[in-house]
Amino acid sequence: LCDGKKEIKYMVINVNNLTFCYEGSFDNIFENVSFSIDTDWKLGFIGRNGKGKTTFARLLSGDYEYSGSISAPGVIFDYFPYEVSAEQAEKTASELMPLWKPGCEEWKAICELNRLNADAEILYRPFCTLSHGERTKIMLAVLFSEENDFLIIDEPTNHLDSDARVTVREYLIRKKSFILISHDRDLLDACTDHVLVLNRKSIEVQAGNFSGWWDNKRKKDAFSESENE
């Protein structure tokens, strides 16, 4: 069952003239941003802290109001990490799964846990008793349990030890259809084939991983500096 293959439908997400600012703020986080991405890409999201990466992820998920349009017909977005309240943390992940991803079939999550080198028994322990690595693996397993979803993965290796980081990296290398937000350059290099680059108020799309973008950026910066001199 775990090795069963299904036809996966890939689509295009179009962002047109997206403008957003937080209530009470005078400055826009994004201003007339337009680009397109394919849902079969493995996207790395690059930008400095506080520049809007998580905000944009939340906009895709429909958490905030904005002007402009995000057109994604037929695309179901899902976001990592799932929110877990103190009260919910007393329950097991098996009990929480229907809240995180309605319709999630437990056997599919167990198959994904196997690919993450995790035992299915962690699904039946109180969530608050699990380690950071176990919680991350469970949430990723639920996240990837539906093949046609487009996933937004926010800092999946935070608070993980080196072994768990390697496991998550090797797992994501075999996946696609996601935007990965991370400060882990090794993770971005290994797991992405396109990058979303967050500029001051815009976002641009480039093919390649983090290192490819970084090399191009340094060359452009060096060329601009040479011209200025």
Descriptive overview:
With about 230 residues, the chain is an alpha/beta fold. Helix content is about 35%, strand content about 25%. The protein has helices at about 55-60, 95-100, 105-115, 130-145, 160-175, 185-190, 210-229; strands at about 10-20, 30-40, 40-45, 65-70, 75-80, 150-155, 180, 195-200, 205. Strands 5-6-7-3-8-9 form a 6-stranded mixed β-sheet, sandwiched between helices. α3 packs across α4 (about 130-145). The radius of gyration is 19 Å and the shape is globular. It starts with 11 loop residues before the first strand and ends with a helix.
Query: What is the rounded Rg?
Result: 19 Å
Number of helices: 7
Amino-to-carboxy terminus distance: 63 Å
Q: Strand order of the main beta sheet, please?
A: 5-6-7-3-8-9
| Strand composition percent | 15-25%
The biggest beta sheet reads:
6 strands, mixed
Given the C-alpha coordinates, what overall shape results? globular
Tell me how many strands there are: 9
H/E series, N to C? EEEHEEHHHEHEHEEH
Mean of residue pLDDT values: 89
Give the low-pLDDT segments. Answer: none
Structural class: alpha/beta
Question: Helical proportion?
Answer: 25-40%
